[in-house]
From TrEMBL:
Record-annotated D-isomer specific 2-hydroxyacid dehydrogenase NAD-binding domain positions: 120-297
Protein name: Dehydrogenase
Keywords annotated in UniProt: NAD, Oxidoreductase
Annotated CDD domains: 2-Hacid_dh_1 (cd05300)
Length: 329
């Protein structure tokens, strides 16, 4: 990164932004040259095709094709528009970036607040049995007050296991603090500043058995795929809940479906699945106690502007030769 604060750079963008965000991007990258990729997409999770604009860039913002990342001779920095980076976390991309002294960052910070609030909403909805009341309103419109009250619970004081303690996990822990929950945290590299006991991977079985709520914000990576295994799900108590706002591939989804159908869990709230979109006839849609939102946890009306602001703030750091926020490679 030394010497980054100097020349005018070519910055390629693979995203299509609405007017306000596009204007903020054009103004924010000045005096650098902004090149709009011919393979741009307005879908944040879309995989765009290869594009010469990326191959001639010094900096790329968006979702460039991994082969372009490997081939671009001048590329010094890739900033992804998503929190996830699984398709770049491969040997070829890592080697190409390392050979140029280039780095890859994500927009994880953009999604910390919305994903954490979504997870908190999941936890509260499960505790207060909100879906049951909605189903009743849309269906028989009875008055099952005694039954719902008897199944309701407090979130306050419960045992919560956080799988992942990146930007989302840290923000969720802060949101949970007023509820005085007891936290345990799985973190790739514990630092001693966790707001609860840090657990190692070999301790996860005991932690799953301990928890009332297991909340995953894990990214998809080589070490996290199917981390939530059949063996770990089997350790959960019948009254426990599982929540996922990370990535669907981190869960053995067939094992989760089996546990739900056998009613070995209280239920699951999923914002992510494998695959996505989840086919309409997939049995998870009908599994007892399973509630699905279509990968909306990171969304908010201001998302495009927030993405641009996050990139531009990192660009200023890049210009000054400083460490970049949300660096993963």
């Amino acid at each position: 990164m030394s010497g980054a604060a100097m020349d005018r750079r070519v910055i390629a963008c693979t995203m299509v932004f609405p007017e306000e965000a596009a204007r903020a991007l054009a103004e924010g990258v000045a005096p650098h040259e902004l090149v709009l990729s011919g393979a741009r997409s307005a879908e944040n999770l879309a995989e765009v095709g290869r594009d010469p604009a990326v191959q001639g860039a010094d900096v790329v913002f968006g979702q460039p094709h991994p082969d372009d990342v490997c081939a671009a001779p001048r590329l010094r920095w890739v900033h992804l528009s998503t929190a996830g980076y699984a398709r770049y976390d491969v040997a070829a991309v890592r080697a190409a970036l390392a050979a140029r002294g280039a780095v890859l960052t994500t927009s994880s910070g953009v999604y910390a607040d919305p994903c954490a609030e979504h997870a908190l909403a999941f936890l509260l909805a499960a505790s207060r049995r909100l879906p049951e009341c909605l189903e009743n309103q849309r269906g028989p419109r009875g008055w099952p007050d005694a039954a719902v009250r008897s199944r309701s619970a407090l979130l306050r004081g419960r045992r919560v296991l956080l799988l992942g303690f990146g930007a989302i996990g840290r923000r969720l822990a802060a949101l949970l603090a007023p509820f005085e929950v007891e936290l345990r945290v799985l973190r790739a590299r514990p630092r001693g500043d966790e707001p609860g006991r840090a657990v190692a991977r070999e301790e996860l079985g005991e932690a799953f058995a301990w928890a009332d709520h297991v909340v995953s914000s894990l990214p998809e990576a080589e070490g996290t795929r199917r981390l939530v295994s059949a063996a770990l799900l089997a350790r959960m108590r019948p009254g426990a809940w599982f929540f996922n706002v990370g990535r669907g591939a981190t869960v053995d989804q067939a094992a989760l479906l089996e546990a739900l159908e056998a009613r070995r869990l209280a239920g699951a709230y999923l914002d992510v699945t494998d695959p996505e979109p989840l086919p309409p006839d997939h049995p998870l849609w009908r599994a007892p106690g399973c509630f699905i939102t279509p990968h909306t946890a990171g969304g908010r009306r201001e998302e495009p502007v927030a993405q641009v602001e996050h990139f531009v703030a990192n660009l200023r750091r890049f210009e000054r030769g400083e460490a970049l926020v949300d660096r993963v490679i």
